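Q: Hi! First time doing this. I have a protein sequence and I read that you can turn it into a structure. Is that right? Here it is:
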Amino acid sequence: MEYGQQGQAQRSELRKFYLAVFGTFFFVQEAFIGAIMVAFYTQYLGFSFAQMTGFFSIILMTRTVAELPCGVIADVLGRKKALIAGELLALAAMCSLLYLAHEKTTSVSMLTLGIGVVWGFGGALSSGNLMPLLHDMALEVGFDKKFQRILSYGHSLSSGVIFFAAIASGYIAEQSLVLPVLFDLAFSLLFILVCALYITSGKPSSMQATLPKGLSSVARNFICELQQVDLLMLIPLGLISGIFFGSERAVFNFLQPQLTGYGVATHLWGWVSSGLFLVAAVVGIIAARLKVESISKMYIALFSLLLLVLSLVFLLVIPNVISVVAFLAVSAAIGILIGPLITTVLLERQAKSSSIKTTIFSVYSFIGAGCSAALQTVTGLAATGMNNHQIIIMCATLSAIVLLIFFLHITKYTDKYAN
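A: Yes, that's right. Below is the predicted 3D structure, encoded as C-alpha coordinates:
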Protein backbone atom coordinates (compact mmCIF):
# COMPACT_ATOMS: atom_id res chain seq x y z
CA MET A 1 0.00 0.00 0.00
CA GLU A 2 2.79 2.36 1.00
CA TYR A 3 4.71 1.41 -2.16
CA GLY A 4 1.63 2.18 -4.28
CA GLN A 5 1.23 5.58 -2.65
CA GLN A 6 4.91 6.33 -3.23
CA GLY A 7 4.61 5.34 -6.89
CA GLN A 8 1.51 7.51 -7.26
CA ALA A 9 3.37 10.46 -5.70
CA GLN A 10 6.28 9.95 -8.13
CA ARG A 11 3.89 9.85 -11.09
CA SER A 12 2.26 13.04 -9.83
CA GLU A 13 5.65 14.79 -9.59
CA LEU A 14 6.58 13.55 -13.06
CA ARG A 15 3.27 14.81 -14.48
CA LYS A 16 3.82 18.21 -12.86
CA PHE A 17 7.34 18.38 -14.29
CA TYR A 18 6.14 17.62 -17.83
CA LEU A 19 3.29 20.14 -17.58
CA ALA A 20 5.62 22.79 -16.14
CA VAL A 21 8.17 22.30 -18.93
CA PHE A 22 5.53 22.20 -21.66
CA GLY A 23 3.57 25.19 -20.34
CA THR A 24 6.52 27.49 -19.69
CA PHE A 25 8.07 26.80 -23.08
CA PHE A 26 4.76 26.88 -24.96
CA PHE A 27 3.42 30.19 -23.64
CA VAL A 28 6.26 32.32 -24.97
CA GLN A 29 6.26 35.99 -24.01
CA GLU A 30 6.13 38.42 -26.94
CA ALA A 31 5.62 35.59 -29.43
CA PHE A 32 3.22 37.59 -31.58
CA ILE A 33 4.62 41.12 -31.46
CA GLY A 34 8.14 40.16 -32.57
CA ALA A 35 7.35 40.08 -36.28
CA ILE A 36 5.69 43.53 -36.27
CA MET A 37 7.44 45.16 -33.31
CA VAL A 38 8.88 48.12 -35.23
CA ALA A 39 5.51 48.86 -36.85
CA PHE A 40 3.72 48.66 -33.49
CA TYR A 41 6.06 51.13 -31.79
CA THR A 42 6.48 53.54 -34.70
CA GLN A 43 3.01 53.42 -36.30
CA TYR A 44 0.62 52.51 -33.48
CA LEU A 45 2.39 54.24 -30.56
CA GLY A 46 3.91 56.97 -32.72
CA PHE A 47 7.50 56.53 -31.51
CA SER A 48 10.45 57.54 -33.65
CA PHE A 49 13.06 54.83 -34.21
CA ALA A 50 15.35 56.56 -31.69
CA GLN A 51 12.51 56.76 -29.14
CA MET A 52 11.78 53.07 -29.61
CA THR A 53 15.39 52.01 -29.00
CA GLY A 54 15.53 54.51 -26.13
CA PHE A 55 12.51 52.83 -24.52
CA PHE A 56 14.19 49.43 -24.88
CA SER A 57 17.31 50.93 -23.28
CA ILE A 58 15.27 52.13 -20.27
CA ILE A 59 13.93 48.61 -19.76
CA LEU A 60 17.37 47.06 -20.10
CA MET A 61 19.17 49.62 -17.93
CA THR A 62 16.58 49.20 -15.15
CA ARG A 63 16.96 45.47 -15.43
CA THR A 64 20.74 45.81 -15.28
CA VAL A 65 20.60 47.84 -12.06
CA ALA A 66 17.98 45.59 -10.45
CA GLU A 67 19.35 42.17 -11.52
CA LEU A 68 21.73 41.51 -8.60
CA PRO A 69 19.50 42.66 -5.73
CA CYS A 70 16.51 40.85 -7.26
CA GLY A 71 18.56 37.66 -7.54
CA VAL A 72 19.41 37.81 -3.84
CA ILE A 73 15.75 38.54 -2.97
CA ALA A 74 14.61 35.51 -4.97
CA ASP A 75 17.15 33.18 -3.33
CA VAL A 76 16.21 34.38 0.15
CA LEU A 77 12.42 34.78 -0.11
CA GLY A 78 11.66 32.13 -2.72
CA ARG A 79 12.20 31.76 -6.46
CA LYS A 80 8.61 30.85 -7.37
CA LYS A 81 7.23 33.93 -5.59
CA ALA A 82 9.78 36.18 -7.31
CA LEU A 83 9.06 34.63 -10.72
CA ILE A 84 5.31 35.18 -10.49
CA ALA A 85 5.63 38.69 -8.97
CA GLY A 86 8.06 39.76 -11.70
CA GLU A 87 5.87 38.41 -14.49
CA LEU A 88 2.84 40.24 -13.06
CA LEU A 89 4.77 43.53 -13.01
CA ALA A 90 5.91 43.04 -16.62
CA LEU A 91 2.32 42.19 -17.61
CA ALA A 92 1.05 45.38 -15.96
CA ALA A 93 3.70 47.43 -17.81
CA MET A 94 2.73 45.87 -21.12
CA CYS A 95 -0.95 46.72 -20.49
CA SER A 96 0.03 50.30 -19.60
CA LEU A 97 1.92 50.61 -22.87
CA LEU A 98 -1.35 50.38 -24.79
CA TYR A 99 -2.57 53.47 -22.95
CA LEU A 100 0.19 55.57 -24.54
CA ALA A 101 -1.45 55.32 -27.95
CA HIS A 102 -4.41 57.33 -26.61
CA GLU A 103 -2.47 59.70 -24.34
CA LYS A 104 -1.64 62.96 -26.11
CA THR A 105 -0.53 65.13 -23.17
CA THR A 106 2.98 66.27 -22.30
CA SER A 107 3.18 63.51 -19.66
CA VAL A 108 3.82 60.85 -22.31
CA SER A 109 7.59 60.94 -21.85
CA MET A 110 7.24 60.48 -18.08
CA LEU A 111 4.72 57.68 -18.57
CA THR A 112 7.09 55.97 -21.00
CA LEU A 113 9.91 56.25 -18.49
CA GLY A 114 7.74 54.85 -15.71
CA ILE A 115 6.51 51.95 -17.83
CA GLY A 116 10.07 51.12 -18.89
CA VAL A 117 11.27 51.13 -15.27
CA VAL A 118 8.41 48.88 -14.06
CA TRP A 119 8.90 46.53 -17.03
CA GLY A 120 12.64 46.34 -16.40
CA PHE A 121 12.22 45.72 -12.67
CA GLY A 122 9.64 43.02 -13.32
CA GLY A 123 12.00 41.36 -15.78
CA ALA A 124 14.83 41.48 -13.23
CA LEU A 125 12.65 40.03 -10.48
CA SER A 126 11.50 37.09 -12.61
CA SER A 127 14.86 36.61 -14.37
CA GLY A 128 16.99 33.65 -13.41
CA ASN A 129 14.26 31.80 -11.51
CA LEU A 130 12.63 29.54 -14.10
CA MET A 131 15.66 27.42 -15.02
CA PRO A 132 16.74 26.71 -11.40
CA LEU A 133 13.13 25.82 -10.52
CA LEU A 134 12.82 23.45 -13.49
CA HIS A 135 16.27 22.01 -12.75
CA ASP A 136 15.26 21.32 -9.13
CA MET A 137 12.15 19.54 -10.40
CA ALA A 138 14.31 17.54 -12.83
CA LEU A 139 16.53 16.49 -9.92
CA GLU A 140 13.48 15.34 -8.00
CA VAL A 141 12.28 13.07 -10.84
CA GLY A 142 15.80 11.85 -11.77
CA PHE A 143 16.07 13.74 -15.08
CA ASP A 144 19.08 15.93 -14.22
CA LYS A 145 21.36 14.10 -16.69
CA LYS A 146 18.85 14.67 -19.47
CA PHE A 147 18.20 18.32 -18.63
CA GLN A 148 20.18 19.79 -21.54
CA ARG A 149 18.27 17.57 -23.97
CA ILE A 150 14.97 18.57 -22.33
CA LEU A 151 15.94 22.22 -22.79
CA SER A 152 16.67 21.58 -26.48
CA TYR A 153 13.20 20.11 -26.93
CA GLY A 154 11.74 22.99 -24.91
CA HIS A 155 13.44 25.67 -26.98
CA SER A 156 12.32 23.85 -30.14
CA LEU A 157 8.75 23.96 -28.85
CA SER A 158 9.06 27.70 -28.18
CA SER A 159 10.48 28.26 -31.66
CA GLY A 160 7.64 26.25 -33.15
CA VAL A 161 5.07 28.36 -31.28
CA ILE A 162 6.74 31.57 -32.47
CA PHE A 163 6.82 30.12 -36.02
CA PHE A 164 3.02 29.96 -36.11
CA ALA A 165 2.56 33.13 -34.02
CA ALA A 166 4.77 35.14 -36.39
CA ILE A 167 2.76 34.02 -39.43
CA ALA A 168 -0.50 34.82 -37.68
CA SER A 169 0.69 38.20 -36.40
CA GLY A 170 1.60 39.37 -39.90
CA TYR A 171 -1.99 38.82 -41.04
CA ILE A 172 -3.83 40.06 -37.95
CA ALA A 173 -1.59 43.15 -37.80
CA GLU A 174 -3.07 44.20 -41.14
CA GLN A 175 -6.41 44.40 -39.33
CA SER A 176 -5.00 46.13 -36.24
CA LEU A 177 -1.45 46.50 -34.92
CA VAL A 178 -2.71 46.09 -31.36
CA LEU A 179 -4.14 42.57 -31.86
CA PRO A 180 -0.75 40.76 -31.68
CA VAL A 181 -0.09 42.56 -28.37
CA LEU A 182 -3.42 41.35 -26.97
CA PHE A 183 -2.50 37.77 -27.90
CA ASP A 184 0.83 38.24 -26.10
CA LEU A 185 -0.98 39.50 -23.01
CA ALA A 186 -3.11 36.32 -23.02
CA PHE A 187 0.02 34.17 -23.35
CA SER A 188 1.65 36.00 -20.44
CA LEU A 189 -1.38 35.34 -18.24
CA LEU A 190 -1.36 31.64 -19.14
CA PHE A 191 2.40 31.46 -18.46
CA ILE A 192 1.83 32.88 -14.96
CA LEU A 193 -1.01 30.40 -14.40
CA VAL A 194 1.23 27.46 -15.38
CA CYS A 195 3.95 28.68 -13.01
CA ALA A 196 1.46 29.03 -10.15
CA LEU A 197 -0.16 25.60 -10.65
CA TYR A 198 2.62 23.26 -11.77
CA ILE A 199 6.02 24.60 -10.71
CA THR A 200 6.95 23.38 -7.25
CA SER A 201 8.99 25.48 -4.86
CA GLY A 202 10.97 22.46 -3.68
CA LYS A 203 12.64 22.18 -0.30
CA PRO A 204 13.72 25.44 1.38
CA SER A 205 17.33 26.31 0.52
CA SER A 206 19.94 27.03 3.17
CA MET A 207 19.43 30.73 2.40
CA GLN A 208 15.73 30.47 3.24
CA ALA A 209 16.45 28.29 6.27
CA THR A 210 18.68 30.97 7.80
CA LEU A 211 16.13 33.75 7.29
CA PRO A 212 14.45 33.30 10.74
CA LYS A 213 17.88 33.67 12.37
CA GLY A 214 18.19 37.23 11.13
CA LEU A 215 19.73 39.18 8.27
CA SER A 216 23.27 38.80 9.59
CA SER A 217 23.00 35.00 9.32
CA VAL A 218 21.59 35.32 5.82
CA ALA A 219 24.44 37.65 4.82
CA ARG A 220 27.12 35.29 6.19
CA ASN A 221 25.57 32.31 4.42
CA PHE A 222 25.29 34.29 1.18
CA ILE A 223 28.95 35.37 1.26
CA CYS A 224 30.03 31.79 1.99
CA GLU A 225 28.00 30.49 -0.99
CA LEU A 226 29.27 33.27 -3.28
CA GLN A 227 32.90 32.39 -2.54
CA GLN A 228 32.30 28.99 -4.14
CA VAL A 229 31.38 30.57 -7.49
CA ASP A 230 33.91 31.42 -10.21
CA LEU A 231 32.41 34.78 -11.17
CA LEU A 232 35.01 35.44 -13.90
CA MET A 233 33.67 32.42 -15.81
CA LEU A 234 30.30 34.18 -16.07
CA ILE A 235 31.60 37.16 -18.09
CA PRO A 236 31.85 35.45 -21.53
CA LEU A 237 28.45 33.86 -20.94
CA GLY A 238 26.95 37.27 -20.19
CA LEU A 239 28.52 38.71 -23.35
CA ILE A 240 26.82 36.01 -25.40
CA SER A 241 23.51 36.84 -23.75
CA GLY A 242 23.81 40.59 -24.24
CA ILE A 243 25.67 41.02 -27.53
CA PHE A 244 24.91 37.90 -29.57
CA PHE A 245 21.18 37.65 -28.87
CA GLY A 246 20.85 41.45 -28.69
CA SER A 247 22.52 41.81 -32.10
CA GLU A 248 20.18 39.23 -33.58
CA ARG A 249 17.18 41.26 -32.35
CA ALA A 250 18.72 44.53 -33.60
CA VAL A 251 19.45 43.07 -37.05
CA PHE A 252 15.83 41.93 -37.35
CA ASN A 253 14.60 45.39 -36.27
CA PHE A 254 16.67 47.04 -39.01
CA LEU A 255 15.58 44.42 -41.52
CA GLN A 256 11.91 45.41 -41.19
CA PRO A 257 12.38 48.92 -42.71
CA GLN A 258 14.35 47.29 -45.54
CA LEU A 259 11.46 44.92 -46.22
CA THR A 260 9.11 47.90 -46.31
CA GLY A 261 11.44 49.68 -48.72
CA TYR A 262 11.32 46.68 -51.04
CA GLY A 263 7.51 46.84 -50.99
CA VAL A 264 7.06 43.68 -48.89
CA ALA A 265 3.54 43.54 -47.44
CA THR A 266 3.10 43.52 -43.65
CA HIS A 267 1.71 39.99 -43.54
CA LEU A 268 4.86 38.71 -45.28
CA TRP A 269 7.01 40.02 -42.40
CA GLY A 270 5.45 37.22 -40.37
CA TRP A 271 6.61 34.66 -42.91
CA VAL A 272 10.19 35.98 -42.78
CA SER A 273 10.20 35.94 -38.98
CA SER A 274 8.49 32.55 -38.76
CA GLY A 275 10.98 31.00 -41.16
CA LEU A 276 13.79 31.88 -38.76
CA PHE A 277 12.03 30.18 -35.86
CA LEU A 278 11.27 27.15 -37.99
CA VAL A 279 15.03 26.83 -38.55
CA ALA A 280 15.58 27.08 -34.79
CA ALA A 281 12.88 24.48 -34.05
CA VAL A 282 14.34 21.97 -36.52
CA VAL A 283 17.91 22.48 -35.27
CA GLY A 284 16.75 22.09 -31.65
CA ILE A 285 14.99 18.80 -32.40
CA ILE A 286 18.04 17.49 -34.28
CA ALA A 287 20.30 18.50 -31.37
CA ALA A 288 18.02 16.76 -28.89
CA ARG A 289 17.80 13.60 -31.01
CA LEU A 290 21.59 13.53 -31.28
CA LYS A 291 21.74 13.65 -27.46
CA VAL A 292 23.44 17.02 -27.44
CA GLU A 293 24.60 16.58 -23.83
CA SER A 294 27.06 13.91 -25.03
CA ILE A 295 28.71 16.23 -27.59
CA SER A 296 31.76 18.22 -26.49
CA LYS A 297 30.78 21.79 -25.68
CA MET A 298 33.97 22.97 -27.39
CA TYR A 299 32.89 21.36 -30.67
CA ILE A 300 29.43 22.98 -30.44
CA ALA A 301 31.03 26.39 -29.87
CA LEU A 302 33.51 25.90 -32.76
CA PHE A 303 30.80 24.76 -35.16
CA SER A 304 28.66 27.79 -34.20
CA LEU A 305 31.58 30.18 -34.72
CA LEU A 306 32.45 28.84 -38.17
CA LEU A 307 28.80 28.95 -39.24
CA LEU A 308 28.45 32.57 -38.12
CA VAL A 309 31.68 33.66 -39.84
CA LEU A 310 30.49 32.14 -43.12
CA SER A 311 27.17 34.00 -42.86
CA LEU A 312 29.03 37.25 -42.06
CA VAL A 313 31.17 36.83 -45.19
CA PHE A 314 28.00 36.24 -47.22
CA LEU A 315 26.55 39.42 -45.69
CA LEU A 316 29.61 41.42 -46.73
CA VAL A 317 29.87 40.00 -50.26
CA ILE A 318 26.15 40.15 -51.12
CA PRO A 319 24.65 43.15 -49.28
CA ASN A 320 20.93 42.58 -49.76
CA VAL A 321 17.86 41.32 -47.94
CA ILE A 322 18.60 37.68 -48.81
CA SER A 323 21.99 37.75 -47.07
CA VAL A 324 20.44 39.47 -44.02
CA VAL A 325 17.74 36.80 -43.76
CA ALA A 326 20.42 34.11 -44.18
CA PHE A 327 22.44 35.67 -41.35
CA LEU A 328 19.35 35.72 -39.11
CA ALA A 329 18.62 32.06 -39.95
CA VAL A 330 22.17 31.11 -38.97
CA SER A 331 21.88 33.17 -35.77
CA ALA A 332 18.62 31.39 -34.91
CA ALA A 333 20.27 27.98 -35.43
CA ILE A 334 23.25 28.98 -33.28
CA GLY A 335 21.00 30.39 -30.57
CA ILE A 336 19.12 27.10 -30.22
CA LEU A 337 22.46 25.28 -29.89
CA ILE A 338 24.23 27.49 -27.37
CA GLY A 339 21.18 28.56 -25.33
CA PRO A 340 20.70 25.17 -23.58
CA LEU A 341 24.49 24.79 -23.42
CA ILE A 342 24.88 28.03 -21.43
CA THR A 343 22.00 27.15 -19.10
CA THR A 344 23.52 23.73 -18.44
CA VAL A 345 26.93 25.27 -17.77
CA LEU A 346 25.40 27.67 -15.26
CA LEU A 347 23.40 24.97 -13.47
CA GLU A 348 25.73 21.99 -13.63
CA ARG A 349 29.13 23.64 -13.29
CA GLN A 350 28.30 26.66 -11.16
CA ALA A 351 25.10 26.22 -9.22
CA LYS A 352 24.11 22.54 -8.99
CA SER A 353 24.35 22.32 -5.19
CA SER A 354 24.23 26.04 -4.48
CA SER A 355 21.52 27.88 -2.59
CA ILE A 356 22.12 31.02 -4.63
CA LYS A 357 21.24 29.70 -8.08
CA THR A 358 19.16 32.73 -8.96
CA THR A 359 21.94 35.08 -7.85
CA ILE A 360 24.35 33.26 -10.16
CA PHE A 361 21.88 33.65 -13.02
CA SER A 362 21.45 37.29 -12.02
CA VAL A 363 25.19 37.96 -12.35
CA TYR A 364 25.02 36.39 -15.81
CA SER A 365 21.88 38.41 -16.67
CA PHE A 366 23.40 41.58 -15.17
CA ILE A 367 26.28 41.39 -17.64
CA GLY A 368 23.94 40.49 -20.50
CA ALA A 369 21.40 43.23 -19.74
CA GLY A 370 24.14 45.86 -19.48
CA CYS A 371 25.57 44.84 -22.85
CA SER A 372 22.08 44.77 -24.41
CA ALA A 373 21.28 48.25 -23.08
CA ALA A 374 24.55 49.60 -24.48
CA LEU A 375 23.88 47.89 -27.82
CA GLN A 376 20.35 49.32 -28.07
CA THR A 377 21.67 52.81 -27.32
CA VAL A 378 24.50 52.53 -29.84
CA THR A 379 22.26 51.21 -32.64
CA GLY A 380 19.68 53.92 -31.94
CA LEU A 381 22.34 56.65 -32.20
CA ALA A 382 23.97 55.00 -35.21
CA ALA A 383 20.65 55.12 -37.08
CA THR A 384 21.09 58.87 -37.51
CA GLY A 385 24.42 58.57 -39.34
CA MET A 386 24.56 55.08 -40.86
CA ASN A 387 22.27 53.26 -43.26
CA ASN A 388 20.45 50.10 -42.18
CA HIS A 389 22.82 47.68 -43.85
CA GLN A 390 25.89 49.28 -42.26
CA ILE A 391 24.32 48.88 -38.83
CA ILE A 392 23.45 45.26 -39.65
CA ILE A 393 27.11 44.62 -40.59
CA MET A 394 28.21 46.23 -37.31
CA CYS A 395 25.88 44.02 -35.26
CA ALA A 396 26.87 40.89 -37.18
CA THR A 397 30.57 41.63 -36.60
CA LEU A 398 29.96 42.09 -32.87
CA SER A 399 28.14 38.73 -32.82
CA ALA A 400 31.14 37.01 -34.43
CA ILE A 401 33.55 38.63 -31.95
CA VAL A 402 31.61 37.53 -28.84
CA LEU A 403 31.14 34.04 -30.27
CA LEU A 404 34.93 33.86 -30.73
CA ILE A 405 35.37 34.93 -27.09
CA PHE A 406 32.87 32.25 -26.07
CA PHE A 407 34.78 29.59 -28.02
CA LEU A 408 38.10 30.62 -26.42
CA HIS A 409 36.40 30.58 -23.03
CA ILE A 410 35.02 27.06 -23.55
CA THR A 411 38.43 25.91 -24.82
CA LYS A 412 40.18 27.33 -21.74
CA TYR A 413 37.78 25.63 -19.34
CA THR A 414 37.44 22.35 -21.24
CA ASP A 415 38.14 20.27 -18.13
CA LYS A 416 35.59 22.16 -16.03
CA TYR A 417 32.98 21.92 -18.77
CA ALA A 418 33.72 18.30 -19.64
CA ASN A 419 30.61 16.16 -19.97
